[in-house]
């Protein structure tokens, strides 16, 4: 399976697959080597500068495209003995938002600081499964899609608020067609 695709440069795509990250040179129509020892079951990819952030069932990783070094960041998650499964990634200001099977985290790559963010009004005793994170380009709007609905993330005060729409809908994917319209894919169809 291919779970995610990210454009790396004018020649390469990174594909997140069940077998790990595959680097595809689309100009030469061939796959190129990725370091051995990388995670399998890759669910999210995010390019920030020369760093390819990798969200996998086995945790959070970063691949430096210049040095070709692969770093495992899974041990930075607080209060977890095991690495959490990472399903969604997005960059907001100088931080990364990381959606996992067990909640949302904010990560500052420079300080190596990982902070859990509490989802308000979440069902008690349920996993806080974050399926998707989406920032509308050219705006300060960031949305968090979970198994139990939609949340908005406020960049300035780093807070979350449950959206008044699509409650109890599993949010699977999001996109926008302009600065004001959010398209939301759910188990029950597409909403805008």
Number of helices: 0
Task: Name the poorly predicted regions.
Answer: none
> What would you call the structural class?
mainly beta
Extended strand count: 19
Radius of gyration: 16 Å
Residue-averaged pLDDT: 87
Task: Please give the oligomerization state of what you see.
Answer: single chain
The major beta sheet can be summarized as:
4 strands, antiparallel
Alpha-carbon distance between the two ends: 28 Å
Percent helix range: under 10%
Structure notes:
- The protein is mostly beta strands and 192 residues long.
- The protein has no helices and 19 strands.
- Strands 1-2-3-4 form a four-stranded antiparallel β-sheet, with no helix packed on it. Strands 5-6-7-8 form a four-stranded antiparallel β-sheet, with no helix packed on it. A four-stranded antiparallel β-sheet has the order 9-10-11-12, with no helix packed on it.
- The two termini are 28 Å apart.
- 30% of the residues are buried.
Summarize the structure.
This protein has strands spanning 2-7, 12-17, 20-25, 30-32, 42-48, 51-56, 59-64, 70-72, 86-92, 95-100, 103-108, 113-117, 130-135, 141-146, 149-154, 159-162, 171-176, 182-186, 189-191. The protein is an all-beta fold and 192 residues long.
List keywords for this structure.
192 residues; mainly beta; four-stranded antiparallel beta sheet; 0% helix
Strand and helix layout:
Layout: E1 2-7, E2 12-17, E3 20-25, E4 30-32, E5 42-48, E6 51-56, E7 59-64, E8 70-72, E9 86-92, E10 95-100, E11 103-108, E12 113-117, E13 130-135, E14 141-146, E15 149-154, E16 159-162, E17 171-176, E18 182-186, E19 189-191
Antiparallel strand pairs: 1-2, 2-3, 3-4, 5-6, 6-7, 7-8, 9-10, 10-11, 11-12, 13-14, 14-15, 15-16, 17-18, 18-19
